Amino acid sequence: MTGTPEKPDGRQKAEGPPAAGGTPPAPRRRGRPSRTAAGSGPGARERILTAARAEFAEHGYDGASIRGMAKNAGVDPALVHHYFGPKEKIFAAAVETAFAPALSVADLVIDAGPEGAGERMARFVLGVWEDPVTREPLLAILRSAVANETAAGVFRDLVSSRLMIRLAAELDGPDARLRSELAASHLVGVAMLRHVIKLEPLASADVEQVVAMVGPAVQRYLTGA
Amino acid sequence: MTGTPEKPDGRQKAEGPPAAGGTPPAPRRRGRPSRTAAGSGPGARERILTAARAEFAEHGYDGASIRGMAKNAGVDPALVHHYFGPKEKIFAAAVETAFAPALSVADLVIDAGPEGAGERMARFVLGVWEDPVTREPLLAILRSAVANETAAGVFRDLVSSRLMIRLAAELDGPDARLRSELAASHLVGVAMLRHVIKLEPLASADVEQVVAMVGPAVQRYLTGA
After folding, report:
1. Domains parsed from chain B with CATH numbers
2. By CA distance, what is B142's nearest residue in A?
3. Does the structure show a pLDDT above 60 at A92?
4. Which pLDDT tens digit goes with each residue over A213-224?
5. Residue B177 contacts A, CB cutoff 8 Å
């Protein structure tokens, strides 16, 4: 493959991932490889993440390969490793991206005051599951987490640190962490039965009817009311 | 392999599954193969089911093979097919066995009267998840159902017909099916976060504390109280 007319040695080198000695030219930009590397550049990280999510969704955590992600993202496998490290870290980044829409839940739910917080949380979380664009990444991650202990651990750490601790910090009264998790458990369960198992009539029920029924249960965990 | 000294032709034949023309000797016992088939007999069905559950647990629905189940059960693959039919039906039988402990939930919860029904249902369902002997089959099935649409459909049909319809029939008021499913969704979600994702402090919380906190939410769905 090396030495094909289209790829002179110089370009070969630039196309490869940063080697051991190939420190990125601007060390202050942590973790960014040379802009001259083919497939890299501003969009490469996002492209790899999208490809990684698709790979996890299709093959599960165990079956997902860095080679497959790289191929779908149009980059060298070593560039994937350069950006993210081993598979576990790629999965963590994928979980983080998939959860990005949910990270604002603590502020969104609590900032408007305790009244109706349960219904707002239910509407927000079930809304994220309602839209295929935000649902599919969550489903991919859920599938991996249910099937693989390592993936479950990555998922657990991120949900704890990014969602549960923040939500619990906003709650008054004892057992705030446990109450946050029980509120979340209910919404996870509704999403499971509605979107994964597709149990009827829950799967086809109007989302606002579900929100109205589930809201008070979530409210009880958030505010004890 | 055929014609080895240990396996004369006669025994070879008896070991095989009932062939097209090999109708069971007692046709009134539907679906039962000849008792003379090696590996069959009273315990064969249960042995195959146990092996099938282990196969689904280890390889998921897509990766599970009838050959693998047969090998672990010590029977001919065709005997597996004879008892259960295609993989989908084997999965259905495995789901049914795994859910056997839960099938009494409707009677158990409601027969003692509406008061405290939510707490009793939470204690019963979470108790099934608490014991590794009853948890592992459920986990295997959940993993398959989350990963595969066919498995999700089998799971859905059984949960609907065996659990939800029966529970809803015991409830007064409107939307009984939807309320049954929302009650179940909460307990499914608690089991997911406690036993699969292992989110702390929920994973280590005393089960009776969880029952006491979740019970009122379930009660609201069951009786509106």
Report:
1. 31-85 (1.10.10.60), 99-223 (1.10.357.10)
2. A146
3. yes
4. 999 999 999 988
5. yes
